[in-house]
Every structure is written in structure tokens, then in C-alpha cells.
Design brief:
about 15% strand; alpha/beta; 8-stranded parallel barrel; binds phosphoenolpyruvate; single chain; TIM Barrel
Length: about 250
């Protein structure tokens, strides 16, 4: 089974109409409207701040999809939230759940992340579900325990694995410039795939993309992409730059 390489760009709480227009124009120029790359299939998904979703959708190269960075698991009296239903209604196919900034700054628990993930899938969205350990958890030897706990909460509610991409993002590597070594990342990705095989089933383990996030940039993407269980990336800071195209082109 071949897993199509997947590259996500998470713009977080950055961008303006002007910066989006300029960045997308540069991507279009270097990719002949998104058609060229290295000629191999790659799924590309960009997550702008929600208010700029339509701006990005209009400006991105034709084969770039759009995602939101989070969603809520209900419509109704929830001021400030955006329900998964609305994301679908706007023709946006993807959403990120459980990003470490949602977990740490906004105190989202494993259960909240699992509920959002299940709800988004039930409405027809595909989900980039994020997990990852803190530095102190890694230093305490708890890397696999933490990632398996977070994955297990998500897995318990997933009904359609074809709609899920797992993003392993060690929190100590996000926005810090400290990238996990290819060996460190591969070790966790292989363990997560083994966990899926044992606890969901071998077919899901084989077909589910497990992508890496944490200070990925053009200079380190190739080596990471060469690891057997790294099926792509979720990229923050480097996805706000013209040379993000080299990350998209990084797989062998
Ligand atoms: C992210 O926001 O998911 C991320 C990995 O950020 P960065 O690439 O900037 O570390």
C-alpha cells in the first residue's frame, strides 16, 4: 500500500490579505499554478487563520487544499467558535485538531480533541489530528506513553480512518528551531504505526499517513522524508515563505 505524501502548512495566527496574495502568487509562479513539483503525487493542505480561509482558497495554486486550524463540535450558542458544519458549508475539506498550542495555551484535553475529531469526521471533514510530547515528558522517558495516550483517545472515537492524518509534533520542536533527528522522529512514527496495527488493525496502520511536525524547513526536510514511516509534514513557520515549495518537493 502506498501512502500519498502529505504536506500541510499551518499559518497559525499570522498573515494579512497582502501577505497571502503575495505568497500565493510566488508559489503559483514557482509551480506553474501548482502543476509541476517533482512530478510525484503529493497532497498539499494549507491552514490559514479562519478569517482568511476564502482569501487563501481564492489565491492558492489549484491543487492546494484548504484547512482550518481548529473547529468546534456543535453549532449554537458558542460565541467565537466555528463549527465543523460551517467548515463543510464553506467547501473547506480539512481541519486540524489537537495542535499543541490548542492543548497547552487553550487547555484542550485529550477528550476535547477526540470529540472535535469525531464530530469533524461525522460532518464529512478530513482531519489532521496532532499529538506530541513536551520536553519534560521526553526527558522523563515518557515519549511513547504520552503519544500513545493521546492517539488512543482519538482512536477511540474515529469511525473512518480514511479521513485521518496523524501529525506527530514533539512540542519541544515546534517553533523552536530544534528539529527532531530523523532517527528520533522515525522511532516514534514506527511505534505509532505499531500501536495502530495492534489496537485498530493492520490495514489502518498500513494506510494511515503519519506526518512529522516541528521546525521542518527546506534544509532538513529531505532527510526526514527519507524515513520509512514519515509520510509527510505539518509545517508552521516555514509554510509562510516562498521556499515552502522545496519542502513539498522533499520526498524521494
Ligand atoms: C506547527 O505549527 O505545527 C509547527 C510544526 O510549527 P513549526 O514548523 O514552526 O515548528
Amino acid at each position: 500500500m502506498t501512502r500519498t505524501f502529505f504536506v500541510g502548512g499551518n499559518w497559525k495566527c499570522n498573515s494579512t490579505v497582502k501577505s497571502i496574495t503575495e505568497l500565493c502568487a510566488s508559489w503559483k509562479e514557482s509551480t506553474d499554478n501548482g502543476a509541476k513539483y517533482s512530478g510525484k503525487p503529493v497532497e498539499i493542505v494549507i491552514a490559514p487563520p479562519s478569517i482568511y480561509a476564502q482569501t487563501a482558497k481564492d489565491a492558492l495554486p489549484a491543487n492546494f487544499q484548504v484547512s482550518l486550524q481548529d473547529c468546534y463540535s456543535s453549532t449554537g450558542a458558542f460565541t467565537g467558535e466555528i463549527a465543523a458544519d460551517m467548515i463543510v458549508d464553506m467547501g473547506i475539506p480539512w481541519v486540524i485538531t489537537g495542535h499543541s498550542e490548542r492543548r497547552t495555551i487553550f487547555k484542550e484535553t485529550d477528550e476535547v480533541v477526540a470529540t472535535k475529531t469525531a464530530y469533524a469526521i461525522s460532518k464529512g471533514l478530513s482531519v489532521i489530528a496532532c499529538i506530541g510530547e513536551l520536553l519534560e515528558e521526553r526527558e522523563a522517558g515518557k515519549t511513547l506513553e504520552v503519544n500513545e495516550r493521546q492517539l488512543s483517545a482519538i482512536a477511540a472515537t474515529v469511525t473512518d480512518w480514511s479521513k485521518v492524518v496523524i501529525a506527530y509534533e514533539p512540542v519541544w520542536a515546534i517553533g523552536t528551531g530544534k528539529v527532531a533527528t530523523p532517527e528520533q522522529a522515525q522511532e516514534v512514527h514506527a511505534a505509532l504505526r505499531a500501536w495502530l496495527s495492534t489496537n485498530v488493525n493492520p490495514e489502518v496502520a498500513e494506510s494511515t499517513r503519519i506526518i512529522y511536525g516541528g521546525s521542518v524547513k527546506p534544509a532538513n526536510a529531505n532527510e526526514l522524508a527519507g524515513q520509512a514511516d514519515i509520510d509527510g509534514f505539518l509545517v508552521g513557520g516555514a509554510s509562510l515563505k516562498p521556499d515552502f515549495i522545496s519542502v513539498i518537493d522533499s520526498y524521494a
